[in-house]
Amino acid sequence: MPVSIRVIPCLDVDAGRVVKGVNFENLRDAGDPVELASRYDAEGADELTFLDVSASSGNRETTYDVVRRTAEQVFVPLTVGGGVRSTDDVDRLLRAGADKVGVNTAAIARPELVAEIADRFGSQVLVLSVDARRVTGDTRTESGFEVTTHGGRRGTGIDAVEWASRAAALGAGEILLNSMDADGTTSGFDLEMLARVRAEVSVPLIASGGAGSPAHFVAAARAGADAVLAASVFHFGAMTIAEVKDVMRAEGVDVR
């Protein structure tokens, strides 16, 4: 049975404000996260994703406060990621109102964390965020894609497709696949990378990085994405969630 594709606005939150840049640089202010979340909920978002891009210990309480206030205002599932390093971090975010929690760098450093979170809370709360890019220079991976950390600035040499597959086997309930090459460029999702990961994992796959037109969302769905995520095109009014869904429906893509 085909899945209905979810459309998910992503809010990159820095010190309590939504920000957005290109390739994770030159960040500019995009508004108040609670106000934006409420707007997207009203506009028909299927879920919301918050990424704490300044996830230092000093900003933790700000993040919990934003999550609490947002959870009181919206009625769609809320995923929160950034700086999650332990099952206790997951517990605190869930208690603050998150429905799912995104894990990235800490899982790369210690893959057992994926299994620990899945065992304690269930796979359905665990979204593995994979910031991936095409390999360059002397780096080689079998798929041609590698996992990065630190907002795409640091390569790991880890094959992105293999890592997604391994994490799913360890208990990740979803994979958020973010193309660092395409991030913020509005030139389209990395369809080759999506298709490569789709061939190896059966858990839901969220496409991220590069959305610039409704047609890009259609292409991502056809490449195997179960959900499509975008930030700047929604924040700065280039298109609405309703417009994206209308085009997807017109192209024969089943949306919620």
TrEMBL record:
InterPro entries in the record: Aldolase_TIM, His_biosynth, HisF, IGPS_HisA/HisF, RibuloseP-bd_barrel
Q: What class of enzyme is it?
A: lyase
Q: Which UniProt keywords apply?
A: Amino-acid biosynthesis, Cytoplasm, Histidine biosynthesis, Lyase
Q: Which reaction does it catalyse?
A: 5-[(5-phospho-1-deoxy-D-ribulos-1-ylimino)methylamino]-1-(5-phospho-beta-D-ribosyl)imidazole-4-carboxamide + L-glutamine = D-erythro-1-(imidazol-4-yl)glycerol 3-phosphate + 5-amino-1-(5-phospho-beta-D-ribosyl)imidazole-4-carboxamide + L-glutamate + H(+)
- Does the record carry Lyase as a key word? yes
Q: In its keyword annotation, does this UniProt entry include Cytoplasm?
A: yes
Q: What's any GO biological process attached to this entry?
A: L-histidine biosynthetic process
Listed pathway(s): Amino-acid biosynthesis; L-histidine biosynthesis; L-histidine from 5-phospho-alpha-D-ribose 1-diphosphate: step 5/9
Q: Main localization of the protein?
A: cytoplasm
Enumerate the active-site residues.
12, 131
Q: Which domain of life is it from?
A: Bacteria
CDD domains reported for this sequence = HisF
Record localization: Cytoplasm
Under which EC number(s) is this enzyme classified?
4.3.2.10
- According to the UniProt entry, where is the signal peptide? none
An example Gene Ontology CC term for this record: cytoplasm
Query: HAMAP family, from UniProt?
Result: HisF
Which family, according to UniProt?
A: Belongs to the HisA/HisF family.
User: What do we know about how this protein assembles, alone or with others?
Assistant: Heterodimer of HisH and HisF.
The job of this chain, per UniProt, is described as: IGPS catalyzes the conversion of PRFAR and glutamine to IGP, AICAR and glutamate. The HisF subunit catalyzes the cyclization activity that produces IGP and AICAR from PRFAR using the ammonia provided by the HisH subunit.
User: In its UniProt entry, what is this protein called?
Assistant: Imidazole glycerol phosphate synthase subunit HisF
